[in-house]
Amino acid sequence: MSFLTIGHRGMMGVEPENTLRSFVRAEHEGLDVIELDLHLSKDGSLVVMHDADVDRTTDGAGPISERTLAELRELDAGRGERIPVFEEVVEAVKAPLQAEIKDVAAAQALAEVMRARDLTGRVEVISFHDEALAAIRTLLPGVRTALVASRYGADVVDRAQAVGATMLSLNIRRLTLELVERAHAAHLKVLGWTVNTHDQLRLARGLGLDGVVTDLPEIRRAVRFTA
Q1: 212 beta partners
Q2: Residue 135 in contact with residue 105, Cβ under 8 Å?
Q3: What is the C-alpha separation between 110 and 101, in angstroms, rounded?
Q4: I need a labelling partner for 172 at 20 to 30 A (CA). Which of 19, 72, 207, 210 fits?
Q5: Which GO biological process categories is it annotated with (predicted)?
Q6: ∠ CA 222-50-70 to the nearest 5 degrees?
Q7: For the whole model, what pTM was predicted?
Q8: What is the pLDDT of residues 146-179, one digit of tens each?
Q9: Sequence-distant (≥ 6) Cβ neighbours of residue 125 within 8 angstroms
């Protein structure tokens, strides 16, 4: 497998995060995979947003779960962009996707959409929550999953194996060569996030990572110089 570059929430370093504009930009810049985040709206839609509330990234306030999709659509998500739903992202770009489920409740809805649209080959499901990954694998056998972690120890490899994940996506500031080697010995691929500088990219290469998550298009362009 070649060294992967994953566009974080699209291309959030240069576009409003988790918007169609951001995802299209990531694809245009040649990112190998596009990462996005999912929550459920009050009426059960798969809303693409990182936070549980709309305060930080829109001109609104309050939890996503307390608004219907129609109400969420009224908000400005940056530069006039509207909050998308997962199905719109699938149609807007052709690149492979990493869909991060923020809570177990979203697993059911995501599984239904992926099954109906035959997306198991294109979409990898990722989460910080072990139980969410276990749930999606039960609902959608054969789905590829990755465990995400920020504060973690050596047991993160065991956790990934326990829920059937094939990849780890880890905070690069805590990564060690020993952990990467342990993960690879367990046949797990390892991504580092968030890699936004050339020094961080060189570190990722030195650690033998399988790819990086980045906010910036220049990291994608720099990859060929750090092989």
Answers
A1: 5, 192
A2: no
A3: 8
A4: 19
A5: lipid metabolic process
A6: 125
A7: 0.97
A8: 999 999 999 999 999 999 999 999 999 999 999 9
A9: 98, 99, 100, 101, 107, 110, 133, 136, 143, 144, 145, 146
